[in-house]
UniProtKB/TrEMBL annotation:
<dbReference type="InterPro" id="IPR011051">
    <property type="entry name" value="RmlC_Cupin_sf"/>
</dbReference>
<dbReference type="InterPro" id="IPR051161">
    <property type="entry name" value="Mannose-6P_isomerase_type2"/>
</dbReference>
<dbReference type="GO" id="GO:0009298">
    <property type="term" value="P:GDP-mannose biosynthetic process"/>
</dbReference>
<dbReference type="InterPro" id="IPR001538">
    <property type="entry name" value="Man6P_isomerase-2_C"/>
</dbReference>
<dbReference type="InterPro" id="IPR029044">
    <property type="entry name" value="Nucleotide-diphossugar_trans"/>
</dbReference>
<feature type="domain" description="Mannose-6-phosphate isomerase type II C-terminal">
    <location>
        <begin position="351"/>
        <end position="442"/>
    </location>
</feature>
<dbReference type="Pfam" id="PF01050">
    <property type="entry name" value="MannoseP_isomer"/>
</dbReference>
<dbReference type="GO" id="GO:0005976">
    <property type="term" value="P:polysaccharide metabolic process"/>
</dbReference>
<dbReference type="InterPro" id="IPR014710">
    <property type="entry name" value="RmlC-like_jellyroll"/>
</dbReference>
<feature type="domain" description="Nucleotidyl transferase">
    <location>
        <begin position="4"/>
        <end position="271"/>
    </location>
</feature>
<dbReference type="Pfam" id="PF00483">
    <property type="entry name" value="NTP_transferase"/>
</dbReference>
<dbReference type="InterPro" id="IPR005835">
    <property type="entry name" value="NTP_transferase_dom"/>
</dbReference>
<dbReference type="GO" id="GO:0004475">
    <property type="term" value="F:mannose-1-phosphate guanylyltransferase (GTP) activity"/>
</dbReference>
<protein>
    <submittedName>
        <fullName>Cupin domain-containing protein</fullName>
    </submittedName>
</protein>
Length: 458
């Protein structure tokens, strides 16, 4: 069995920490057994490794998330990269075409699909392992996992099994229908029918989806489907495939499962009520502070509240109202903080002047032993001030060692790179003309390539 983790979408539900460049699964607000802060994707990947599933797993993600994914789970993780975001059906179709035409996976192979951010116990992955045998035994087109609800929720979709399968000794039930996010009263009625929460996990044989792509006149070769990706319908796999299939089974799961998609649910799983600088007064009850900026935040006398601060903005919300955040964050601004495979970038200031000059000031961190690509900006000058660490700098083939206190001027169309011997931080001031889009040209990415081709000094 091959496992595809879906990692797509933007990060509006957990604004201001999440954004188009850093979706919710990358937020380091959970803690592992060593009391280190980890993200949802790091936690799930760790569980896959413990369950011996990681060696057969791939992550389907967008081009915008590649660097952050590699930074958090490692460069060796196999990625299937979408050229743009288009919803779950195109993403799964592209992954299936990749497995079939690029990896040579048999049409008889079972493929399981898993969101990259479920909050579950380790034995949840034992249920995932069972999907292969269930697909074979039931001869179903699709096998889903449904979570046994512990309360009537209006936040989740429901899987309704056939009445004749209640009490069956089989580990699965035949599916009768689906219900998307009912009211709480309707959900209570569904619970009497043994309905299950749809957790977005399902499996099928690869041949099933390849055949479906052929029926839709879509390419089954990865490279061709990748070229036509922009014209594929923006539709979920649930609507395009699951709800139209006739032969579906569901495997009930009775363990702990939670969707950490809102500040309300996420803070319930945080071990610490405060991350970052600030103070929460003792009379605050069920109040959380997550602060990523250098300015302290004080919360006094407020209960059932979440306060989140990042370079993108500040959120102050009651936890019950935090689900309405999408209605209030239409600021049309680019992300102010991004993780990269080599470190991170924080936008400190971004100004446009009357003469159409634009000046952007950034704080940039490069981890020890990591390096920037060998690159040049076609419409921007840069001035770097090294404020921490030591490294090796190459500009147009000229090599020099740099350390805290050095100031480097990089004119437009000048090839340059920097490798960190120890953790480096620097202030970057980038300037140019606003009407000219800043284009980055990258020639080489690894330090071995750069050192072999660009200089003989190393």
């Amino acid at each position: 069995m091959k496992l595809i983790l879906l990692s797509g979408g933007s990060g509006s539900r957990l604004w201001p920490l999440s954004n188009d460049a850093r979706s919710k699964q990358f937020l380091k607000v959970l803690e592992n057994e060593n009391q280190q802060f980890i993200s949802m994707v790091q936690q799930v990947w760790g569980q896959l490794m413990q369950s011996n599933l990681s060696k057969d797993s791939y992550i389907a993600t967008s081009q915008a998330q590649v660097e952050m994914m590699q930074s958090q789970v490692g460069p060796e993780v196999r990625l299937i990269i979408e050229p743009e975001r288009r919803d779950t059906f195109p993403a799964i179709a592209l992954a299936a075409a990749y497995l079939y035409s690029m990896e040579g996976i048999s049409l008889n192979e079972t493929i399981a699909i898993l969101p990259v951010d479920p909050y579950v116990e380790n034995h949840f992955f034992d249920t995932i392992k069972s999907l292969e045998a269930i697909i074979h035994h039931s001869e179903a087109d699709l096998a889903l996992i449904g979570v046994e609800p512990n309360y009537p929720s209006s936040k989740y979709g429901y899987i309704i099994p056939e009445t004749g399968t209640h009490g069956s000794k089989q580990p699965y039930k035949r599916v009768s229908s689906f219900r998307e996010k009912p009211s709480e009263a309707q959900a209570a009625e569904l619970l009497t029918k043994q309905a299950l929460w749809n957790c977005g996990v399902f499996a099928f044989k690869l041949g099933y989806l390849i055949s479906l792509l052929e029926q839709l006149n879509l390419p089954i070769q990865y490279e061709e489907l990748n070229k036509q990706y922009q014209v594929m319908p923006k539709i979920s796999f649930d609507y395009q495939v699951v709800e139209r299939a006739e032969n579906i089974v569901v495997v009930p799961y009775s363990g702990y499962w939670k969707d950490l998609g809102t500040w309300n649910t996420l803070t319930e799983e945080m071990r610490n009520k405060q991350i970052g600088q600030g103070t929460i007064s003792e009379d605050c009850i069920n109040t959380h502070l997550i602060n990523e900026i250098d300015v302290p935040v004080s919360i006094i006398g407020l209960s059932d509240v979440v306060v989140a601060a990042s370079p993108d903005g500040i959120l102050v919300s009651s936890k019950s109202a935090s689900t309405r955040i999408k209605d209030y964050i239409k600021y049309n601004q680019a992300p102010k903080f991004e993780e990269r495979k080599w470190g991170w970038v924080k936008i400190l200031d971004d100004q446009v002047y009357e003469d159409n000059r634009c000046v952007t000031t950034k704080r940039v961190g490069i981890r020890a032993e990591e390096n920037l690509s060998y690159r040049m900006h076609t419409y921007r000058d840069e001035v770097w001030t090294i404020v921490k660490g030591e490294g090796e700098f190459i500009q147009n083939g000229n090599y020099m060692k740099v350390k805290a206190g050095n100031i480097l001027h990089i004119p437009t169309k000048t090839l340059h790179t920097l490798r960190a011997n120890s953790d480096i931080e620097m202030i970057v001031v980038q300037s140019g003309i606003r009407s000219e889009e800043n284009s980055l040209v990258e020639l080489y990415h690894t330090w071995r390539e750069i050192s072999e081709i660009c200089t003989k000094a190393l």
